[in-house]
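Entry:
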Amino acid sequence: MHEVEINESIVADEQHCEFISKIGVPVTGWKMDLKRCFDLAVGLLGTLLSVPIVNVFAILIKLTSDGPVFYKQERVGWMGTTFDVIKLRSMYQDAEAQTGAIWAKKNDPRVTPVGRWMRKTRIDELPQFWNVLKGDMSLVGPRPERPELTEQFSERYPDFPKRLRIIPGITGYAQINGGYDITPGAKCQYDNYYIEHFSIWFDIKMLMGTVRVIISGDGAR
């Protein structure tokens, strides 16, 4: 029994190393240092400004559906490391108990009425400013996926792991151009384009574009 566990551990380590090799060389350098300073400054301001909004919706969530106000979910981040993303709960409790991990869809029946409005305005994402301050996420970058979906999409799209060369973001180039309705393949292309053309000015344009998307409600589901 002990030998079987050791062999399974060895196989898992080999698979992890193989996956890491598919990611490629991480993005580093002074641009990333500048990006981190920008994230901290805007992230702190965003945290302070979002507290009243988060509190209001925390009350609405508690009054309209059973379950916790905040929702933690494991995601795959920089160079394959995992972390817990923090969101305001927009789905009914145990929404994936029978289905397992699946991509959200338009008019998703798992989403609560309050959650539908939060998703339309992206208010459910506001607690992720804390992820930014911790360093798990950036303001702008590829949206992190769950481990199960990352594995699934990586098998179908060889360039999908390359999205992990840079810190994931609250918003990103793929979200501006396709929102929640974008396919995994297109998302992969947009995210890798962002990485290849990354700059602080690009990030600022993406943040401005995010404001437009929030106002219009494009791509919500």
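The two ends are 46 Å apart (CA to CA).
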